[in-house]
Amino acid sequence: xxxxxxxxxxxxxxxxxxxxxxxxxxxxxxxxxxxxxxxxxxxxxxxxxxxxxxxxxxxxxxxxxxxxxxxxxxxxxxxxxxxxxxxxxxxxxxxxxxxxxxxxxxxxxxxxxxxxxxxxxxxxxxxxxxxxxxxxxxxxxxxxxxxxxxxxxxxxxxxxxxxxxxxxxxxxxxxxxxxxxxxxxxxxxxxxxxxxxxxxxxx
Length: 203
Hints:
Number of helices: 9
Oligomer: single chain
Strand content: under 5%
Distance between the termini: 64 Å
Structural class: mainly alpha
Number of strands: 0
Order of helices and strands: HHHHHHHHH
């Protein structure tokens, strides 16, 4: 195994362990065993368990920035992708949910943040940013644009955004705990989005 591949294998194995048992409960020895290398070899790639965690967070943030719609909350510059109908919104949101649930690194990173948010202040901030602030900011911007375009009736955009996105966040968390309910959740998401567009449609 060459050095570059070994480093990636260490990050992959560490994230898997951290997402199941947490950062503090995972030892360097466990990570080395999972990769199939000696502990001393692991230290030639990372000088500490914290350095491994830092590298994981950096990589996850890179992927999040490239692929998550919630990291690109600038509707004024991205108006071409504005979902103007319930059908378009359903496709966009369901696609994002599938990415969140099935991308291995993003899925494991989210589970790690759930575990670590009560133990690690920095990861608690990241959990709030990624799973609340960015999401609510994204949907508040979306709702404002849909109001300006005359698609939705004018009302409090932040409260409308909360009504729109927070149930979806709860359903994603449900899928994390009970993956077999994904189809049920997708159907609920579709019904929820269609009802939202009906209730707030500009008369």
